[in-house]
């Protein structure tokens, strides 16, 4: 049963693999702008934005937005102290300073009172993250910034839906970005997208986009190869044997990754920001065309989990397809040990800057400065909701572990 909780490539299927296979040897078409433009257009229409530009990763899309907002050395960019380290890195690459704001424990989003204390005359941007897919109230944050020259960027890496703007996403901010890496709602193996409805910002992103390069053809080949291998080997049906081969491929360095998570200076060994390649855009188009099913499944799994551990209102779960279903528990590490086969170290955000485990001062985070975020990291477990998660497997899991989880749940009002 453990295989059902394997967390990579949850949003892709064999049709996506077929697209990757059909395109992997068409090297001359890797940089074909037409497919990329189609992807950008489809994505912006679906999400409800006027302008969209795809990049090689979410962090690159964020970096490009910071640059387009003319964030400079010594400017301050506020981010939640419960995010992925690459978000903080992108701010460092620009030369600005990440300022960390604490989170609310009931939605893992920015704590407004703490935010008010963190805004200074140097604040240039506030980045609002809809963690795990739970909407943070951007309207409230917008009110605080009224009369100040502060931009708001929404991080949609965990929240993606059709008609986002109908749900107030992107409505109160200046720009948004998302990630389409292999653990997210749209999976182009690696990838990201910057969105805006503001024509002036759009013109500036376009300039950055136009002068950006693609990754090398060899890197793109490796990305497509990694995508194919991962979808086949880490598929629930093949997992038991597949994971062994996958680990061998990883050891042999056949699996592509940016490996920049701990790097705080602009990477020089590949273009940063880089444009997304055309084959990845084609995979993205295929997934956008079936996003409705993807989101419905995520809602179904979230509502099913909620039956056992009821942490959220049904209204919230009906409205959004959670990327992961989070719950705070007393002894998270013990529970993870008991369910080790299921989680396989795949819990998200067990440190304030996911993927950085020490030396937080390098990215300007002071231990103890955001107590709620640090508490959440120690106590969170979170369940994936993607289409490879089988309803029956979730039921079996909770029949077995329901009582231990429930007796340890930390209830937050
Ligand atoms: C909240 C959040 N923002 C941004 C990112 C960065 O996305 P990418 O890995 O595509 O650069 C991540 C990555 O997981 C994330 O979790």
Features:
413 residues; alpha/beta; Aspartate Aminotransferase, domain 2; Aspartate Aminotransferase, domain 1; 7-stranded mixed beta sheet; two-stranded parallel ribbon; 43% helix; globular; binds pyridoxal-5'-phosphate
Question: How is the topology of this model organized?
Answer:
Blueprint: H1 14-23, H2 33-47, E1 51-55, H3 58-68, E2 76-80, E3 83-84, H4 85-94, E4 97-101, H5 112-118, E5 123-129, H6 138-145, E6 151-155, E7 175-179, E8 192-196, H7 199-211, E9 213-214, H8 217-233, H9 239-251, E10 274-275, H10 278-288, H11 291-309, H12 314-319, E11 324-328, H13 332-338, H14 340-343, E12 353-354, H15 371-379, E13 380-384, H16 391-406
Parallel strand pairs: 2-4, 2-5, 3-12, 5-6, 6-7, 9-10
Antiparallel strand pairs: 1-8, 7-8, 11-13
Helix pairs in contact: 1-8, 1-10, 2-10, 3-4, 3-7, 8-9, 11-16
The chain binds pyridoxal-5'-phosphate.
Oligomeric state of shown chains: single chain
What are the low-pLDDT stretches, counting only 5+ consecutive residues below 50?
none
**CATH architecture field of the largest domain:** 3-Layer(aba) Sandwich
Mean pLDDT: 93
Query: What fold name goes in the CATH topology slot of the largest domain?
Result: Aspartate Aminotransferase, domain 2
| Whole-number tally of structural domains | 2
Strand content: 5-15%
Structural class: alpha/beta
Determine Rg (CA atoms, Å): 20 Å
Give the beta-strand count.
13
Strand line-up across the major sheet: 1-8-7-6-5-2-4
* Ligands, deduplicated: pyridoxal-5'-phosphate
Biggest sheet, in brief? 7 strands, mixed
CATH-assigned homologous superfamily of the largest domain: Type I PLP-dependent aspartate aminotransferase-like (Major domain)
Q: Which range best describes the helical content: under 10%, 10-25%, 25-40%, 40-55%, 55-70% or over 70%?
A: 40-55%
> Which shape, going by the Cα principal axes?
globular
* SS field, number of helical segments: 16
Just give the CATH class of the largest domain: Alpha Beta
């Amino acid at each position: 049963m453990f295989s059902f909780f394997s967390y990579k490539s949850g949003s892709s299927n064999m049709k996506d693999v077929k697209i990757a296979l059909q395109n992997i040897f068409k090297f001359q078409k890797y940089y074909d702008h037409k497919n990329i433009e189609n992807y950008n257009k489809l994505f912006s229409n679906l999400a409800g934005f006027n302008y969209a530009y795809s990049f090689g990763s979410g962090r690159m899309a964020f970096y490009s937005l910071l640059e387009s907002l003319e964030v400079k050395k010594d400017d301050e960019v506020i981010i939640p102290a419960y995010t992925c380290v690459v978000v903080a890195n992108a701010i460092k690459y620009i030369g600005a300073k990440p300022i960390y704001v604490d989170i609310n424990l009931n939605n893992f989003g920015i704590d407004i009172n703490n935010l008010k204390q963190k805004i200074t005359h140097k604040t240039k941007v506030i980045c609002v993250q809809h963690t795990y897919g739970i909407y943070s109230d951007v309207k409230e944050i917008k009110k605080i910034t009224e009369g100040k020259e502060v931009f708001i960027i929404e991080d949609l890496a965990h929240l993606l839906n059709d008609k986002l703007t109908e749900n107030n996403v992107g409505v109160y901010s200046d720009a948004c970005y998302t990630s389409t890496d292999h653990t997210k709602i749209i999976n182009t193996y690696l990838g990201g997208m910057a969105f805006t409805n503001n024509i002036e910002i759009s013109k500036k992103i376009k300039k950055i986009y136009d002068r950006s390069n693609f990754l090398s053809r060899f890197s793109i080949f490796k990305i497509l190869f990694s995508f194919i291998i991962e979808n086949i080997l880490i598929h629930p049906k093949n997992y038991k044997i597949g994971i062994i081969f996958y680990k061998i491929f990883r050891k042999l360095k056949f699996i592509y990754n940016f490996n920049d998570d701990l790097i705080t200076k602009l990477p020089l060994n590949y273009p940063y920001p880089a444009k997304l390649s055309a084959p990845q855009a084609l995979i993205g188009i295929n997934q956008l065309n079936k996003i409705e099913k993807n989101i419905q499944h995520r809602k179904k799994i979230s509502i099913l989990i909620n039956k056992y551990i009821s942490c959220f209102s049904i209204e919230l779960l009906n409205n959004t397809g959670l990327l992961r279903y989070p719950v705070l528990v007393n002894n998270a590490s013990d529970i993870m040990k008991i369910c080790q086969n299921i989680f396989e170290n795949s819990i998200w955000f067990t440190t304030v800057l996911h993927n950085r485990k020490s030396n937080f001062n390098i990215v300007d985070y002071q231990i103890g400065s955001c107590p709620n975020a640090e508490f959440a990291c120690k106590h969170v477990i979170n369940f994936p909701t993607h289409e490879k998660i089988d309803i029956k497997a979730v039921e079996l899991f909770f029949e077995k572990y329901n009582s231990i989880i429930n007796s340890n749940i930390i209830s937050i009002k």
